[in-house]
Amino acid sequence: YQPKVDIRSGAPVGAEALARWPVVAGGMVSPARFVPAIEAAGLADELFFTMARQVVADMATWRRQNIQIKTAINMSMDTAHNLEVPERLGRLVSAAGLSPADFVIEVTESRLMVERSLAMETLTRLSLMGFVLSIDDFGTGYSSLVQLTDLPFKELKIDGSFVQRASTERKARAILSISIMIGLNLEMEVIAEGVETEGQLEFLRACGGTIVQGYQIARPMPFAACTEWLHAHRTRSKNHPGP
Question: Which is nearest to 164 in space by CA: 155, 173, 152, 177?
Fold first, then answer.
């Protein structure tokens, strides 16, 4: 899990669940390698629901410990084409005593651009059930504004490449600032990912950014370590606003 933090208060407000594949010799297989292979093998739904079952169990544990955050799960466009997904996911969440509003479903913009019409029904049904839809890697596709107009997204995640290039490139700074403005004016939650330096945090504050994710805040970590981090950070945020 990688936490998301509100830079105004320093409080954790969410976490993204990330698939990792450890190897016996040490290290990890990159998701950029194994996720396309899983999709090509027709196993995207199995990966999504394996992740979802674990995330739901972990969220139930966090609720019992009074950790009140939303958790995001990435959804492959292959899975978004399956019309049985909303009901199946809804039953999983309900059985754990949780609410769809506790979960964010992240969809990558670059593939959504090509396959929007095929996924629209599934995504709309998820939204109507109360799941929060997030458009991931915003700025990397070619029809971003069309996506925001036509689909029921409530969260916008700005691609980390713009965050990292903003410190040295005027155009990247402009795109980052405008993206934040668009999201906020559409009354969406706006998250800047890939934040790695204090300077990037300061620029995001100046642009009106509110929620951030990245190594400057916290690296991805296993559930137990993330639980400890959330408890500690929640305590610190009460006395020391801002990350």
Answer: 173
Torsion of CA 194, 178, 109, 17, to 10 degrees: 30
Q: Which residue has the tokens 């409080």?
A: 11
Q: 179-183: long-range contacts at Cβ-Cβ below 8 A with a sequence spacing of 24 or more? A: 179/138, 179/139, 180/204, 180/207, 180/208, 180/209, 181/207, 181/208, 182/145, 182/148, 182/156, 183/156, 183/158
In this structure, the number of other CB atoms found within 10 A of the CB of residue 196 comes to 15
d(CA 87, CA 236): 39
For residue 50, give the nearest of 62, 35, 66, 65 by alpha carbon: 35
Q: Which two tokens stand for residue 199?
A: 């300077």
Mention every residue, 6+ apart, whose C-beta is less than 8 A from residue 26: none
pLDDT tens track, the chain, 243 positions? 999 999 988 899 999 999 999 888 888 888 889 998 998 999 999 999 999 999 999 999 999 999 999 999 999 888 998 999 999 999 999 999 999 999 999 987 656 555 667 788 899 999 999 999 998 877 665 555 777 777 889 999 998 988 999 888 899 889 899 999 999 999 999 999 999 999 999 999 998 999 999 999 999 999 999 999 999 987 655 544 556
Query: Among candidates 76, 89, 168, 84, which has minimal Cα distance to 130?
Result: 89
- For residue 95, what are its two tokens? 């059985």
pTM over 0.70? The answer is yes
